[in-house]
Amino acid sequence: MALLRKTMLTVIMGAFALIMLFPMIITFSNSFMAESEIDYNYHLIGKMVDVAAGEKNEFINLKLIPDWVSLDQYAEVLIHKPMFLHMFWNSVCIVLPIIIGQVAVAALAAFAFAKLKFWGREKLFIVYVMTMLMPFQVTLVPNYIIAGRLGLMNSSSAIILPGIFGAFGVFMLRQFMLHIPYAYLEAAKIDGAGPLRIFYSIMLPLIKPGMAALTVLLFVDHWNMVEQPLIFLEDAFKQPLSLYLSRINEGARGVAFAASVLYMTPMILLFLYAESYFIEGIQMSGIKG
Amino acid sequence: MNSFARHLRKEWLAAVLFLAPSMIGFSIFYLFPFATGLLYSVQDTTIDGSFVGLDNYQAVLSSGSFRKAASNTLLFTGVSVPLIIMLSLLFAHLLNKKLFIRGWLQTAFVMPLVVPAASIVMMWQILFDWNGTLNAWMQHLQAGRIDWMKSDGSILVLIMIYIWKNVGYNIILFLAGLQSIPKDYYETADIEGAGELHKWRHITWVYLTPTTVFVVLMSIIQSFKVFRETYLIAGDYPHDRIYMLQHYMNNMFLSLDVQKLTAAAALMVCAILLLVSAMLMLERRFRSYME
Which of A228-242, A249-263, B30-44, B108-122 has the lowest mean pLDDT? Predict the structure, then answer.
C-alpha cells in the first residue's frame, strides 16, 4: 500500500518535473534539426494567416524528434558565424571579473558586518540590503551619467565595476559568517592574532562553501544579463551572448536552437556540478541573522 | 587608556579597513546615483536645475502611461505572487514525502532558475504565437484561438513564465523550512489524536510563517525581474496589458525624459520600502507572539 502510494506520487511529481524541463528538452532536441527542417516547421512564427481569404489554417509544427539528426546548426554557429564565439568570449570576460571581484570585496565587508563591532553597523547593513531589492531601472539615469563621467561608456567596465560592488555578496557571506561561532575567533584573538590574520587564516577557510555558493549564484545572475549591456554597450562587437540571442531570434531562426543550447550549457553543467552549493546558497540567504 | 578601550578602537579601525573597498565602490555605483536620482526628481533639468518641488511627481502621476504601467505591475504582482506561494508550498509538501528519485525531481524543479532567459525565448514564441502550439491544442479542443501576446492573455503568459522560472527557488526555501520543524511535535499531536488539517494549521503553518514572509518578499522582488522575459519576447512596446513600470522607465530613458524617469523610480522605491517594512513588521509581531 505504502509502495503504491509512493509510486503514484512519484509519477505525478515526475509529470510536473517533465513540464518544468519541457522547454529545455525541446530546445536541445531541436538543435539537431537541419536548417531546412526548422524553416519548414517554424516558418509560421509571427505570421497572420488570413483564413477568410482562403489561406489554409495551419499551425507551427512543434517537433520533439527531428526527421534527420544533423549537426548543421552547430557547424553554422561555431564555424560560419565568428560573431557567436566572439560574443561568448565577451560574456566570459564580463562575468569572470565580476565574480572574482565581488567574492573578494564582499568577503572583506561581510567580515566587518558579521564579526566586528562598529557604530552604525546595523543601519549601514540595511542600506546595503535595500539597494539589493531595487530594480535596475531605478538608478538608470545617474548610473548612465556616472559611467559617462568616468569614461566608461561603451566599455565593459561600465558593467563590470557596478557588478563587483553589488550588495548581494555582502548580504550572503554575512549570513554564512553569522553561523561561525565567536569561540573560533576568540581563541585566535587570545593567541594575539589581529583582525586581518583572523580573517585570513580562520574565517576564509570556514566560509569556502559560502563563497562557492555565491560564485554559482553570481554566475547565473550575470551570465543572464540583458538590461545593462543593452544600455551601456552600443557597439555590437562588445556585447555579450545574451544580446546575440535576442537578435538571432528575429533573423537567423535556423541556428537559434543550437546557439541557445551552447549558451545555456555552461550554466546547466555548473548547476549540476555544484547543485548542493547552489541550494545551500539560496537557503542561507533565507535564514535570518 | 585602559586596554579595553584600546581594543575597541582597534576593532573600529579594523572595521573601517575591511569595509573600505566595498564602501567606496558601493557609494560610487549605488548610493551616489541613488541620491542624484532623488535630486533630479525634484528639479526641472539635470544641469543646474532649479527646485520645482513635486511638479515632476504630479506630471508622472497624471500621465496615462504611468498609471497603466503601475496598475499592470500591481495586477501582475498581486496575482502571480499569491499563486506562486500556493504552488511552491504544495510542491514542497509533496517533495517532502517519500518518493523515488526525489533528488532528480527536485533538480528538475530548480533547473529553470539557471536557464538564461534569452536562450528560451524561441520556445515561448513557438508556444504562444498566433499559429503556436498552444493555439493548435486549443483548436483541437474546439476552443478557438487566442492571440496570446497581443491580447489580455499576455499577462497569463507572463504569470506562467514567472512561475515556471521561480517556483524552484521557493520550493527550496519551503523545503528547508519544513525540514526544520521538529518531528516530535507531530508525534505528540498524533498521540493526542489531532487530524491532518489540524496538525497542518497549528504546527506546520505556524513554524513556516518566518519562511513564508521571506518567500513572499523574494517573490515580489522576482516579479519585477520578469521584465527581462517580457522585453525579450515583446520588445519596447508590448501589448497594453503587460506594459510594466520597467517599460515605462526604459522608454522615459530612451526619450531622455530624466525628470519623469527619476520621479517614477522614486515612487517605485517608496512602494517597495513600504512593502518591505510591512512584511518585516508582520514578522516581528509574529516572533513576539511566538515568545
Answer: A249-263
Model confidence at A271, pLDDT cuts 50, 70, 90, reads very high
State which H helix or E strand residue A275 sits in. helix A275-286
B-chain residues within 8 Å CB-CB of A23? 112, 115, 120, 123-124, 164
The pTM of this model reads 0.89
Inter-chain contact B118–A243, Cβ cutoff 8 Å?
A: yes
CB B250 within 8 A of CB B32: no
Cβ–Cβ < 8 Å for A259, A245: yes
- Chain B CA closest to residue A158: B29
Fold (CATH) for B64-290: MetI-like fold (1.10.3720)
Record the cell numbers describing residue B139, joined without a space: 483548436
Of residues A110, A119, A218, A208, the one with CA closest to residue B26: A110
Q: Report the largest interatomic distance among the alpha carbons of chain A, rounded to a whole angstrom.
A: 89
pLDDT (0 to 100) of residue A289:
42
Q: Which of A44, A141, A223 has the CB atom closest to B253's CB atom?
A: A141
The answer to whether B133 contacts chain A (CB < 8 Å) is yes
Query: With pLDDT > 70 as the criterion, what percentage of chain A qualifies?
Result: 93
Residue B262 CB coordination number (10 Å): 29
ipTM score: 0.88
Q: What is the mean pLDDT of chain A?
A: 87
- Phi and psi, residue B272, nearest 5°: -65, -45
Q: Is 80 exceeded by the pLDDT of residue A247?
A: no
Q: Which CATH number fits domain A75-286: 1.10.3720.10, 3.40.50.720, 3.30.1060.10, 3.40.50.11740?
A: 1.10.3720.10
Every domain of chain A and the residues it spans: 75-286
Residue to test with chain B: of A5, A10, A42, A138, most B Cβ within 10 A: A138
Query: Among A289, A257, A285, A197, which residue's Cα sits nearest to residue A27?
Result: A257
| Cross-chain CB nearest to A111 (options B18, B94, B95) | B18
> What SS3 state is found at B43?
strand
Give me the helices (H) in chain B, please: 3-26, 32-40, 55-62, 64-95, 102-110, 121-128, 133-140, 153-179, 183-191, 196-199, 205-224, 227-234, 245-254, 258-290
Long-range contact list for A176-180, CB < 8 A, 24+ apart? Answer: A176/A110, A176/A207, A176/A209, A176/A210, A176/A213, A176/A284, A177/A110, A177/A111, A177/A113, A177/A114, A177/A115, A177/A203, A177/A207, A177/A210, A178/A114, A178/A289, A180/A114, A180/A115, A180/A206, A180/A207
